[in-house]
Amino acid sequence: MFGLTVRSTAALRQANFRAFSSQISSLKERVAELIPAKQAEIKEFRDAHKNTVVGSVTVDQIYGGMRDIRGLICETSLLDAQEGIRFRGMSIPEAQAALPKAPGGEEPLPEGIWWLLLTGEVPTAEQVKQVSAEWAARSTLPKHVSDMIDSMPKTVHPMSQLSAAVTLMNSDSSFADAYNRGVNKRELWKYAYDDSVDLLARLPVAAAKIYRNLYHDGKLGAEVDANLDWSANFARMLGFNTPEFDELMRLYLTIHCAHEGGNVSAHSTHLVGSALSDPYLSFAAGLNGLAGPLHGLANQEVLRWITALKDEIGTYEPTDEQLTEFLWNTLKGGRVVPGYGHAVLRKTDPRYTCQREFALKHLPDDPLFKLTSQLYRIVPDVLTQHGKTKNPWPNVDAHSGVLLTHYNLTEMNYYTVLFGVSRAIGCLADLVWSRALMFPLERPKSETTESLKAIVAGKAE
């Protein structure tokens, strides 16, 4: 159960975990089998090419957010400007087709993407079931974390609450304890793995508790059921109990999990982890980055913009002419059209596409979805004519809020928490491999404007 207890007591929870342990150690053991070969591959590659230049850096890139500078390794996912994200080489449609589903379901289980990101292998249905069982068995939220969430004023943003809860969980970090005991750094990945599993197991409990405290009666919608998958348990705790919403959560939590290593949440987690901070502290940093309006808050910005559109025009069924005029007024007012464009992608985000396909199947007549589809037809042409957007196509944020609203999860301030629960999968998988490969402390070189001018002047001479 993803509740404050699995069944009725912590002792029974421990008994459940011991009963599963002989079966569920296989994922950790499989990662252990893969590590030596990967370490050897990287050593051979570095020894042969350590002085090979792989790119150049311009002044504009230095001032422009380090866009397109190749400067870190993330083994778990790679973002292609034309194809979108690939999870260990698999596109979203490929992952949707290959990863195990819940009985009677059609969307991939996030437990499967966790296995894929860690191993590069598609798990069996039984292996995914074992991951679900392990996460359920380890889901008890420490009492001091639960008490802290309950003590939060309702004026505290749900992302601030989640970040604080994750930070506080580090009080029983296996990784921090192992480091303090002087465990060999080659073995630290095992403790990063253990913390990561505990965090993934507990995160939906904390997130659901925050939701129920802020927007409902303070009681979880259900306790964790060891027979349900991670997404279905999360849905029950939030208070939703329909097969369609379960499927939406499986899709949402899978496709938001990773977007290579350079985005704010992934890189923040990676950077803080490189200081050998434990996974709790590292991912809390990632959550704080995700909470920014230029990152994880974007989906609620889309809904606010669409609401303003509806209020100004007076209907969810505007004409194409009315919509085009509203778009141009937005752009001429110095504002952006939220949900469109991406720092890397140069085509429609595949994460948008799979959500659109979900909507076409489950809610084709939803007024908000129909408006979103109309925007999809019109916005790219307007942005292209405007001429200031490299990518006029929709990203993942253009659609996710529409789906959540349809199923009556309407509290927009909470949407980034859902994003955070999903993003933990990718950030923590990368963190485990970073410790397994013993990546060093990150410390890029910075310059002042004056020192940079001197460098440029020296090159010009």
Task: Describe the 3D structure.
Keywords: Transferase. One of its GO terms (biological process) is tricarboxylic acid cycle. It comes from Fonticula alba. With 461 residues, this protein is mostly helical. It has helices at residues 10-24, 26-49, 59-63, 92-98, 110-119, 125-137, 143-151, 158-168, 174-180, 188-215, 230-238, 243-255, 264-274, 279-290, 298-313, 320-332, 350-362, 367-386, 397-406, 415-436, 449-460, and strands at 77-80, 84-87, 90-91. Strands 1-2-3 form a three-stranded antiparallel β-sheet. Strand 1 and strand 2 (84-87) form a beta hairpin. Helix 10 packs antiparallel against helix 20, helix 13 (264-274) packs antiparallel against helix 14 (279-290) and helix 14 packs across helix 20. The protein starts with 9 loop residues before the first helix and ends with a helix. 45% of the residues are buried. Residues 1-24 have low confidence and may be disordered.
User: What is the C-alpha radius of gyration, as a whole number of Å?
Assistant: 23 Å
CA-based shape:
globular
Strand order of the largest sheet: 1-2-3
Low confidence ranges: 1-24
Our estimate of the beta-strand percent is under 5%
Question: Mind telling me the CATH class of the domain at 137-294 and 413-436?
Answer: Mainly Alpha
Helix/strand class: mainly alpha
Average residue pLDDT = 92
Per DSSP E runs of 2 or more residues, the count of β-strands stands at 3
Task: Please report the number of helical segments.
Answer: 21
What are the secondary-structure elements, in order, as H or E?
HHHEEEHHHHHHHHHHHHHHHHHH
Pfam family, one: Citrate_synt
Family: Belongs to the citrate synthase family.
GO molecular function: acyltransferase activity, acyl groups converted into alkyl on transfer
Protein name: Citrate synthase
